[in-house]
Design brief:
The chain has 91 residues and is mainly α. It has 4 helices and no strands. The model has no long low-confidence stretch (mean pLDDT 92).
Length: 91
């Protein structure tokens, strides 16, 4: 629908994204988290896997556990503000 403008063209500052990540139980050992992170990031660096992810329209980011924790905290705060401002309530 090329005649329909993008939302960002008439709502300044509009941004919405989605993301997927892997999680683990809260009490998992740091050694296991580091090993999983290392192995997953190695897989994400594989050209064939990267091409497949790209072909599906996604972008894969190889982040550290600290980076993803920071990202999740920031994203949670951003959307919490939206929920509070809009007065959204769970049913």
């Amino acid at each position: 629908m090329p005649e329909v403008p993008a939302l960002s063209e008439f709502v300044p500052g509009y941004e919405a994204t989605s993301w997927l990540g892997l999680g683990a139980p809260k009490d998992i050992s740091v050694a296991i988290v580091e090993k999983l992170n290392r192995e997953i990031n190695t897989g994400l660096a594989d050209p064939a896997l990267k091409a497949r992810i790209d072909a599906l329209g996604y972008s894969a980011l190889a982040n550290s556990p600290t980076e993803i924790a920071s990202f999740v905290a920031e994203d949670t705060e951003k959307w919490s503000k939206v929920i509070r401002t809009a007065g959204i309530k769970a049913n």
